[in-house]
Design a protein that fits this description.
Family: Belongs to the short-chain dehydrogenases/reductases (SDR) family.
Number of helices: 6
CATH class: Alpha Beta
Shape: globular
Pfam families: adh_short
InterPro entries: NAD(P)-bd_dom_sf (IPR036291), SDR_fam (IPR002347), Tyr_Pase_dom (IPR000387), VLCFA-Steroid_DH (IPR051019)
Strand content: 15-25%
Keywords: Oxidoreductase
Helix content: 25-40%
Order of helices and strands: HEHEHEEEHEHEHE
Protein name: Tyrosine specific protein phosphatases domain-containing protein
Number of strands: 8
């Protein structure tokens, strides 16, 4: 495998999530609320994934990072979720046709947003024994903050999430490396959602960078924003299909 591909897999799939989290976390901790979502991969559920070793490793690292971070941030009322989609019809997966166990990205996005809205509270009742039950409450995503950041938003799951989240009437900050696609996407979103009351902004940025200093452009943009949710969706895979 070419060293450039290995570096790209690590930078885009792993380091980007670390760095984006570093940008939004201080303000979330300060206001004691927020939601951070990481998109992993179903390859992490396989015992082994020959020929996809690096990709599987970095996606597994994301799960581990999210699990530990959720414990650290619990006292600050910050929700951390790691979604692990299996096979989905996207350009990244190279799967073209949906099936019973292979949804489209639009169907997956609706399920993901439903999961994002779920907040689990522990209810303790004292009878003969202490019993801890869980109650799931659906939360308005806007209650986390005014703006949602979505990385890797112009294709696949990220695109479907964006088109679904606009119905929540929150401000959207879209980040992708292709400026023309971002412009077209913003125009299309506004044309199809005339009653949308939020704002849509975008940043052109290539996540294939391993230097945190390159993220200063994003830091400057979000400094005055009330970021409520960060969706780390950007990702790259190998140039050949898994299945």
């Amino acid at each position: 495998m070419e060293p450039q591909l290995i570096e790209q897999l690590v930078n885009v799939n792993l380091l980007s999530s670390y760095y984006m989290t570093k940008l939004v976390l201080p303000n979330m901790i300060k206001k004691k609320k927020g939601l951070i979502l990481y998109t992993s991969s179903g390859v992490t559920s396989l015992k082994s994934c020959p020929l996809y070793t690096i990709y599987g490793s970095v996606k597994d690292a994301i799960c581990s990072f999210a699990n530990s971070l959720s414990v650290e941030l619990k006292e600050y009322n910050i929700q951390v979720q790691c979604h692990v989609p299996l096979f989905i019809v996207t350009k990244l997966s190279k799967i073209k046709n949906p099936g019973i166990f292979v949804p489209t990205s639009d169907i997956y996005a609706k399920c993901a947003i439903q999961k994002m809205r779920e907040v689990i509270f522990d209810i303790v009742t004292l009878e003969f024994l202490k019993i801890v039950k869980s109650k799931i409450v659906l939360k308005n995503l806007k209650s986390y903050g005014d703006t949602i950041i979505i990385t890797g938003c112009t294709d696949g799951i990220g695109k479907s999430l964006t088109y679904s989240l606009i119905n929540q009437n929150v401000n959207l900050l879209l980040i992708s490396r292709n400026e023309s696609e971002l412009k077209n996407m913003k125009r299309d979103l506004l044309e199809k959602n005339k009653n949308y009351k939020g704002t849509i902004e975008y940043i052109t940025f290539d996540y294939n960078a391993n230097d945190f200093n390159t993220y200063k452009i994003i830091e400057a943009k979000i400094r005055s924003m009330d970021i409520g949710i960060l969706i780390n969706n950007v990702g790259v895979s190998y140039p050949y299909p898994l299945v």
